[in-house]
Amino acid sequence: MVVMKMKFPFQKRVKLAQGLWLLSWCATVAGAITFTLGCILKTELRRRAEVMDNSDVHVVPNTLMIVGLASLGINIFASKICQDALDAERFPRWKNMLKPYFAVSCFFTVLMLLAVIMSYAMKGSLESSLKVGLKNGIRFYKDTDTPGRCFQKQNIDRLQMEFQCCGNNDFRDWFEVQWISNRYLDFSSKEVKDRIKSNVDGRYLLDGVPFSCCNPSSPRPCIQYQLTNNSAHFNYEYQTEELNLYLRGCREALVSYFMGLMNTIGAGVLSVFLLQGSVLVSLRFLQTAMEAVAGNENTEIETEGYLLEKSVKDTVMEFIEPVMQFFLFKNQVGEGSSEAPADP
């Protein structure tokens, strides 16, 4: 059963070829944009690598860069076909290449759609990666003398100021770690000794936060130490006071930032996907309409073009069966070689 059969007079074929040539170059530019968007997202994720536990989310920009480059080649190839479609003598040379071309093009077009879906579906993976990464970042904040962690304090401070956030979940996360290095503690001080002795792990914990948690928009000078001690500050109530700190946690801030970026990119790539699909559908109509002209003296006759020669199911099976036969043959060869008797 032929799917979407249409009649194509000579003038309609010419207009289709000309319009498709222009559309393919638009899709080429869109492919370059897709690659660029993938590079931008990759760069942003790498900038925050120190507060991420894994790089699973990098599958999104990596896929975008791959399909962007593939789209460039696919659409440049399509523009060449469109040029030759205007000449009935030159078009037949593409006949043997079009079937594998459509197979490769459909694969990368579907991959582009998967990249769009992943850009919306990676929130859980991103959040879990940031949860562990930020927890470790806060824990190693004080290790400015440890190789590999020298810039951890600087990175966390810049992160909190740039995204106007504090801690992992909120500012209280800083109460649970020793974020001041031992080299800056006076161990002859009774207060320091008492704090260390009062902790089971021998850590110097305090109800304070780094300076980067301070909110410059607050009219009150920053209170970053003894946050839970009402008597330590004039006219201050810890439970009811609107603290002059950033109240949002950095995990929430980063998830919101990256998901906003990926959702925006996803919407753009979805438009590219629709454009790419239009190129492939139009090229298929042009191919089938031009095949009827091959070998005919009158190249200006009316021809019929269609999207699929058979039903969708039969067409899919036509592509899958050779692949399945290849792997089945390879498997049989492997089993035969393993069962071969050893030489005496």
From TrEMBL:
Matching PROSITE patterns: RDS_ROM1 (PS00930)
The UniProt entry, under SUPFAM superfamilies, shows:
Tetraspanin
- The question of whether Transmembrane helix is a record keyword is answered with yes
Q: Where in the cell is it found?
A: Membrane
Report the InterPro entries cross-referenced here: Peripherin/rom-1, Peripherin/rom-1_CS, Peripherin_LEL, Tetraspanin/Peripherin, Tetraspanin_EC2_sf
Q: What residue intervals traverse the membrane? A: 59-79, 100-122, 254-275
Query: Where is it found, in Gene Ontology cellular component terms?
Result: membrane
- What Pfam families has UniProt attached to this entry? Tetraspanin
Q: Which keywords does this Swiss-Prot/TrEMBL entry list? A: Membrane, Transmembrane, Transmembrane helix
Which family is this sequence assigned to?
A: Belongs to the PRPH2/ROM1 family.
State the protein's name: Retinal outer segment membrane protein 1a
Q: Which organism is it from?
A: Pagothenia borchgrevinki (Bald rockcod)
